[in-house]
Specification:
Keywords: Cell membrane, Membrane, Transmembrane, Transmembrane helix. It is a multi-pass membrane protein. It comes from Thiohalobacter thiocyanaticus. Belongs to the 4-toluene sulfonate uptake permease (TSUP) (TC 2.A.102) family. This protein has one domain. Helix content is 81%, strand content 0%. The chain is built from eleven helices and no strands.
Length: 258
C-alpha cells in the first residue's frame, strides 16, 4: 500500500477509537481513490475492515466499563437483520443515491447532537439511578430495537458501520453518558458491520489480502484513538463528534455536486 493509504488506515482506527464511529467514512474513500477499488467492492470491504477493527476497539472500551451489554444485545440483534437487508438493497442502489442519503442523515444526526440537552430534574446519584431505570424499561428497549432496525437498513445500504447514527440514538434514547455511548456504539457497529459485509459477499469482488493489511493498520490506529478519547470530557467528545459529522457530510455532498 502507498503511504497515503497507510495513513488512511491509521486514521480509520483513530476515528473509531475516539468517536465510536466514522471508520467507513475514512475507509471507503481511501479504498476508492487511493487504492482504486471499485465502488461496490469498496463499500463491502469497508464494512469488513470496520467490523474487525470495531470489535477489537470495543473490547478495549469494555475493559474500561464503557460498554452497556444489554443495550448492545438489543440494538445489535435487531440491527444486524436490518443491516443485512440494507446491504442487499445497497447492491442494486446507485452510488450517488447512497452517498447523498448518507450525507443528509449525517447532517440530521449532527443537529441533534448540538442541541442543548434538557436539564435533569435530579442530579448526582439520583439522576443516574433514574437514568438506569428508564434505560432498562421495556418501552426504552422497544425504541432501541426499532432504531436498530431502521439504522441497520440505512447503514447497510450506504455501506457504513452506522456509529454516526448509533451514538446520538444511545445518548438521546437510552440516556447513556457520551463515553459509554461510544463504547457501546463500537460493539453494535461491529455486529452490524459483519451483517452488512455478509450481505455483499458473493455479489461483489472482495480483495481479502488488501482487507487484511488495511485492517492491521487500522487496528494500530484504534489503540491510539481509544487512549486519546479517555483523556477528553464527554461534552468535548459530543461537540467534536457533531463537527466531524458536518465536515464529512459537506465533503461528500460537494463531491456529488461538483
Amino acid at each position: 500500500m502507498s503511504l497515503a493509504a497507510i495513513l488512511a488506515g491509521l486514521a480509520t482506527g483513530i476515528v473509531l477509537g475516539i468517536f465510536g464511529s466514522g471508520g467507513s467514512i475514512v475507509t471507503t474513500p481511501a479504498l476508492l481513490y487511493l487504492l482504486h477499488v471499485e465502488p461496490k467492492s469498496a463499500i463491502a470491504m469497508s464494512l469488513g475492515i470496520v467490523a474487525i477493527t470495531a470489535t477489537l476497539t470495543a473490547l478495549q472500551h469494555w475493559h474500561k466499563g464503557n460498554v452497556n451489554l444489554k443495550v448492545t444485545a438489543v440494538f445489535g440483534l435487531f440491527g444486524i437483520f436490518g443491516t443485512y437487508a440494507g446491504a442487499r438493497l445497497g447492491v442494486i442502489t446507485p452510488v450517488v443515491i447512497q452517498l447523498t442519503l448518507f450525507a443528509l442523515v449525517m447532517y440530521a444526526a449532527a443537529w441533534r447532537m448540538l442541541r442543548p440537552a434538557r436539564p435533569h430534574r435530579s442530579v448526582g446519584a439520583a439522576a443516574v439511578a433514574v437514568q438506569d431505570e428508564v434505560c432498562s424499561s421495556g418501552r426504552c428497549m422497544v425504541h432501541i430495537a426499532g432504531h436498530g432496525i431502521v439504522v441497520g437498513l440505512l447503514t447497510g445500504m450506504v455501506g457504513v458501520g452506522g456509529g454516526f447514527l448509533i451514538v446520538p440514538a444511545l445518548v438521546l434514547l437510552s440516556g447513556l453518558p457520551m463515553k459509554q455511548a461510544i463504547g457501546t456504539s463500537l460493539a453494535i457497529v461491529a455486529i452490524k458491520s459483519y451483517g452488512g459485509f455478509a450481505g455483499y459477499v458473493g455479489d461483489v469482488p472482495i480483495d481479502y489480502p488488501l482487507m487484511a493489511v488495511f485492517t492491521a493498520v487500522a487496528i494500530a490506529g484504534s489503540v491510539v484513538g481509544t487512549r486519546f478519547a479517555s483523556r477528553l470530557s464527554g461534552a468535548a467528545l459530543k461537540r467534536g463528534f457533531a463537527v466531524f459529522l458536518i465536515l464529512v457530510a459537506s465533503y461528500i455532498l460537494a463531491n456529488q455536486i461538483f
